[in-house]
Amino acid sequence: MAEEKSIFSALSRVASTENAHPAISQPPSPRRVSSDSSSDSAATHDISDPEKAVKDQPAPTVERVATKDVNLVDWSGPDDPEKPLNWTKKKKWTNMMIIGALTLLTPFGSSMFAPGVPDMMAEFHSTNVDLASFVVSIYVLG
Question: What is the number of domains present in the chain?
Fold first, then answer.
């Protein structure tokens, strides 16, 4: 406890010294900056109120340069027939059904294989439970 008091007293002495940093020892005073962007050259803004300063200033403009990335892979244009957004409804539905069927059949395959694992383990004379789980897991992974 005495050590904590000595640390706090040392910190308070450092903060109260004459050589302390002015930004730490004193709060900053509001400054006024003249605005050269407005029509009235004598107009000033109070920096202590950032909302007023932002409202009075015009929005900055950014000039964009159109550059084509050489590594960008894109469609030939908005009307490219290979772009999926331009496919016919029949082609979109066909692709959706194929992907949906494959997504559904993968878990079915592992579920059909799982009941046969005990027979397979007996055929190979193994009682290792981890190996039985591994067989089903590796089927799903790959």
Answer: 1
- The 10 Å Cβ neighbour count of residue 86 is 13
Question: How far is Cα 98 from Cα 104, in angstroms, rounded to an integer?
Answer: 10
| Contact between residue 118 and residue 133 where contact means Cβ atoms under 8 Å apart | no
**Percent of the chain residues past pLDDT 70, beyond the cut:** 56
Note if the pTM is more than 0.90: no
Burial 7-16 (b: 16+ CB within 10 A, else e): eeeeeeeeee
Question: Helices 89-113 and 129-141: crossing angle, nearest 10°?
Answer: 170
Residue 11 resides in a domain = no
Q: Which domain holds residue 112?
A: 101-142
Residue 88 lies in a domain: no
Higher pLDDT, 27 or 128: 128
Structural domain includes residue 86: no
Cα–Cα dist 35/57, whole Å:
8
- Phi, psi for 45 (deg, rounded to 5): -125, 140
The CA-atom distances, in angstroms, between 133 and each of 43, 87, 127 are: 78, 43, 11
